[in-house]
């Protein structure tokens, strides 16, 4: 996390591909030499950063003398990093490029879905433990979505079998 302070204080955060001569959200730095473009996240990162800092100051000014903006910011940074790590893990485990031609393998799809479902159930239980009503409802819906995805695998498997039976490429 030591590098996080340096990360958020940089003029230019390298994320995204492509060169762009425009200055999104009036950031300085000219055309990036890294080949990355910040256009996709500059606004959201700035908005989140401002909101976090405002909350940190409010936290520090409340009636509890042990509350400091530094402790709030440290917790926020840990949370942001954890969310990014979870998102990367989720996408690497369960994202499938639907534009590519691939041979449907129901067992592989089912295994990916099973991992996602287990993760959603763990997150649902954690939300129950901490009494987070929003997260409880969110993971209830995600678990329902997993059930729908199981049905989709069954249907895709039936289509694959039908194509094999009639020797079609589907």
Description:
It is a single chain. Helix 2 (42-61) runs antiparallel to helix 3 and helix 4 runs antiparallel to helix 5 (133-165). With 170 residues, the protein is an all-alpha fold. It has five helices and no strands. The protein folds into two domains: 1-95, no CATH class; 102-170.
Instruction: Name the helix and strand elements from N-terminus to C-terminus, one letter apiece.
Output: HHHHH
| Helix percentage | 55-70%
Count of extended strands = 0
How many domains in all? 2
Using only C-alpha atoms, the radius of gyration works out to 22 Å
Give the N-to-C terminal Cα separation.
49 Å
Query: What's the tally of helices?
Result: 5
Q: Average pLDDT value?
A: 76
The biggest sheet amounts to:
none
Low-confidence stretches: 16-29, 96-101
Helix-and-strand structural type: mainly alpha
* Dominant shape: elongated
Q: What is the beta-strand fraction? A: under 5%
Name some characteristics of this structure.
2 domains, mainly alpha, elongated, 0% strand, single chain, 170 residues
Secondary structure layout:
Layout: H1 2-9, H2 42-61, H3 69-94, H4 106-130, H5 133-165
Helix pairs in contact: 2-3, 4-5
In a few lines, what is going on in this structure?
With 170 residues, the chain is mostly helical. The protein has helices at residues 2-9, 42-61, 69-94, 106-130, 133-165. It folds into two domains: 1-95, no CATH class; 102-170.
């Amino acid at each position: 996390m030591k590098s996080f302070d340096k990360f958020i204080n940089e003029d230019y955060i390298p994320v995204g591909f492509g060169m762009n001569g425009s200055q999104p959200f009036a950031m300085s730095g000219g055309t990036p030499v890294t080949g990355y473009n910040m256009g996709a996240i500059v606004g959201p990162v700035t908005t989140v950063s401002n909101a976090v800092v405002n909350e940190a100051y409010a936290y520090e000014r409340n009636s509890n003398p042990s509350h400091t903006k530094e402790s709030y910011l440290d917790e926020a940074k840990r949370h942001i990093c954890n969310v990014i790590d979870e998102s990367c893990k989720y996408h690497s485990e369960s994202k499938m490029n639907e534009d590519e031609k691939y041979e449907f393998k129901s067992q592989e799809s089912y295994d990916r879905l099973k991992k996602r479902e287990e993760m959603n159930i763990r997150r649902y239980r954690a939300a129950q433990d901490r009494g987070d009503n929003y997260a409880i409802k969110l993971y209830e819906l995600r678990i329902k979505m997993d059930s729908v995805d199981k049905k989709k695998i069954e249907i895709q498997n039936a289509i694959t079998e039908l194509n094999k039976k009639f020797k079609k490429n589907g």
